[in-house]
TrEMBL record:
UniProt GO MF annotations: carbohydrate binding; metal ion binding
Domain C-type lectin: start-end pairs: 16-136
Name used for this protein in its record: Selectin E
Family indicated by similarity: Belongs to the selectin/LECAM family.
Disulfide bonds: 162-171, 257-284
Ranges where the EGF-like domain occurs: 136-172
Segments crossing the lipid bilayer: none
Classification via InterPro entries: C-type_lectin-like (IPR001304), C-type_lectin-like/link_sf (IPR016186), C-type_lectin_CS (IPR018378), Compl-Cell_Adhes-Reg (IPR050350), CTDL_fold (IPR016187), EGF (IPR000742), Selectin_superfamily (IPR002396), Sushi/SCR/CCP_sf (IPR035976)
Length: 294
């Protein structure tokens, strides 16, 4: 069984954050059992980071003759916050009078509650003694993170671990890729499920008649903010020059074939003085991709 309560308290950094607590009732737990109970049902054992938190718990928790275990333990001869594994600074240690004592084996810490003397203060005890547990409760809710992130508990708070391609405090923003431009003699069309040029945007490229696409025709915006391929280019399958006027004397046309096809015929023809092309339109074996200038 446990009781729940919310409060607002100054953090150890001087800010303010909402912390919610729970405590066991009638459990009679050793220190390690008390911590396991907190981790199983809630987040972790309360570590007491400042005076305000200790004083709030003194007013909130019911009287218990054996008091309450907290998340401070002696590790390698140093009093340590077990939730962060960091030594407790001397100025943050809130020992009762004449504590901590040096008796062997008293390596765990209890919080005095509703005591005539030294209430809301610490006392070191043997970890095998039986006491109640006081815990931080979960901060994550369904609204904590968007559908693109996972809520991860922290003491008195939470963080959103974003899925690949998303960022921000609540993972609501999709990673952006550089805006794309049309290739010369071509165009592109995009679908943007998460906003213009953002993660999972897909763009397909097309070339004008008489031009072929060189490169990958469809690009996707990736989670690292880069398009998965370079922008393709449009190259003419027939490239003509007209020194006088279109398809007049001395106009020259050059022909190309797509990769994997072989040009059959002359790759360049010219309009001569008789108004005839110097050769017929060549072909690409297996597929005709050239345009007859006539």
């Amino acid at each position: 069984r446990c009781q729940l309560e919310s409060c607002r308290t100054s953090s150890s950094l001087g800010g303010v954050q909402a912390w919610t607590y729970a405590y066991s009732k009638g459990s009679n737990l050793q220190w390690h059992e008390a911590r396991q109970w907190c981790q199983k049902h809630f987040v972790d054992m309360v570590s007491i980071k400042n005076k305000e938190e200790a004083e709030y718990l003194d007013s909130f928790l019911p009287h218990n003759p054996t008091y309450y275990w907290i998340g401070v333990q002696k590790v390698a001869a140093k009093w340590t916050w077990v939730d962060t594994s960091k030594p407790v600074p001397v100025e943050a240690q809130r020992w009762a009078s004449e504590e901590p004592d040096s008796l062997a084996g008293q390596d765990c810490v209890e919080l005095y509650i509703k005591r005539a003397k030294d209430s809301a203060r610490w006392n070191n005890e043997k970890c095998s003694k039986l006491k109640e547990a006081v815990c931080y409760t979960a901060s994550c809710t369904q609204e904590s993170c968007s559908a693109h992130g996972e809520c991860e508990e922290a003491v008195g708070n939470f963080t959103c671990k974003c899925h690949p391609g998303f960022l921000g405090l609540h993972c609501k923003e999709a990673v952006a890729c550089k805006a794309l431009t049309d290739p010369r003699q071509g165009s592109h069309h995009c679908v943007h499920p998460n906003g213009p040029n953002r993660f999972n945007s897909s763009c397909r490229f097309h070339c004008e008649l008489g031009f072929r696409l060189v490169g990958v025709s469809q690009l996707a915006c990736q989670g690292d903010g880069q398009w998965n391929h370079p922008v393709p280019q449009c190259e003419g399958i027939m490239n003509c020059s007209h020194p006088i006027s279109t398809f007049s004397y001395n106009s020259t046309c050059e022909f190309f074939c797509d990769d994997g096809y072989e040009l059959a015929g002359q790759n360049q023809i010219r309009c001569d003085h008789t108004g005839q092309w110097t050769a017929g339109t060549p072909a690409c074996s297996g597929n005709m991709v050239c345009v007859d200038p006539l």
